[in-house]
Specification:
By secondary structure, this protein is α/β, with parallel strands linked by helices. The protein has 2 domains: 204 residues, Alpha-Beta Complex (2-enoyl-CoA Hydratase, Chain A, domain 1), CATH 3.90.226.10; 64 residues, Lyase 2-enoyl-coa Hydratase, Chain  A, domain 2, CATH 1.10.12.10. The protein is 41% helix and 16% strand. It has 11 helices and 11 strands. Strand 2, helix 1 and strand 3 form a beta-alpha-beta unit. Helix 4 packs across helix 5 and helix 8 runs antiparallel to helix 9. About 3% of the residues have low confidence. It holds the Pfam family ECH_1. One of its GO terms (molecular function) is catalytic activity. Belongs to the enoyl-CoA hydratase/isomerase family.
């Protein structure tokens, strides 16, 4: 698949996904939606990829849905937004298909939010593991100001990230707010001058790539995200314990301990594409969860 609205590349075991419609502030389209899903499929299938960085071309991250269709954009979205899919008789929004694919990623995902991130431009970042922002970034859950509702499973993600009160304030007002407020509200982890944003994102990705087991990180990511819906710490403990039993005697654990004792860099032999443990918390086989 040749990409036309994103760029995808791998350097030093880090995949970079760049939203690339700078003349439209990287507004989200049906084409972009399909390309983003394909990019994460590629990253998961490539054992050389240890982390994914997502950013935008030009001065925006993503200004939201492409509204060039006018007032009927959300009523008859068709190929403009990637709507129209029906699962068990229920329509599924296009941004949600991207968010769910990112949620299923086996590689950690770092959002490098370089400018405005509004509507689907911010909700697509919620299943990313770490969000970093430039000082010029602005955020907006503007759906109520467009007469629609929060999408892309953000009604699940956002309250878990920032708390229900902050989530409702941003969603009910629909106002656009600066990076400083996003940091205070815990939507982003850190804010950088524009020129320092991507280097910071890559430094974090390299720390993962250079020092950790790919299989361990994939398992930890699944444990963390599935743990948000665990009914109790006892349920989470059972999931942790299954994976400790399976991975504790595996090759990466032996290498990790030996390298530590030898005071050398570990060279983990296990691969995500072949060595994921059977006790990994299960997610639906169907990408939509039905």
């Amino acid at each position: 698949m040749a990409f036309t609205e994103i760029e995808y590349g791998v350097t030093d075991r880090i995949a970079t996904v760049t939203l690339k419609r700078p003349e439209r502030l990287n507004a989200f389209t049906f084409t972009m939606r399909g390309e983003l899903i394909e990019a994460f499929d590629r990253a998961d299938a490539d054992d050389d990829v240890r982390a994914v960085v997502v950013t935008g071309a030009g001065r925006a991250f993503c200004a939201g849905a492409d509204l060039s269709g006018g007032g009927g954009t959300f009523g008859h979205p068709g190929e403009r937004l990637g709507e129209g899919e029906t699962v068990d008789g229920a329509p599924r929004d296009g941004g949600g298909t991207v968010a769910l694919r990112i949620a299923r990623s086996l590689k950690p995902v770092i959002g490098a939010i370089n400018g405005p991130a509004v509507g689907v431009g911010v909700t697509m970042t919620l299943p990313m593991d770490v969000r970093l922002a430039s000082e010029t970034a602005r955020f907006g859950f503007v759906f109520a100001r467009r007469g629609i509702v929060t999408e892309a499973a953000s009604s699940w993600f956002l309250p878990r990230i920032v708390g229900i009160a902050q989530a409702m304030e941003w969603a009910a007002t629909g106002r656009v707010f600066p990076a400083s407020e996003a940091l205070e509200g815990r939507l982003v982890s850190r804010v950088y001058p524009q020129e320092e944003l991507l280097p910071a994102a890559y430094a974090l990705a390299r720390e993962i790539a250079d020092n950790t087991s790919a299989v361990s990180v994939a398992a930890v990511r699944r444990l963390m995200w599935s743990g948000l819906s665990a009914s109790s710490p006892w349920e989470a403990h059972a999931a942790d314990s299954r994976l400790m039993a399976e991975l504790g005697g595996a090759a990466d654990a032996a290498e990790g301990v030996t390298a530590f004792l030898d005071k050398r860099q570990a060279d983990f032999p296990m691969k995500v594409t072949r060595d994921l443990p059977p006790g990994l918390p299960s997610w639906p086989d169907n990408p939509y969860g039905v």
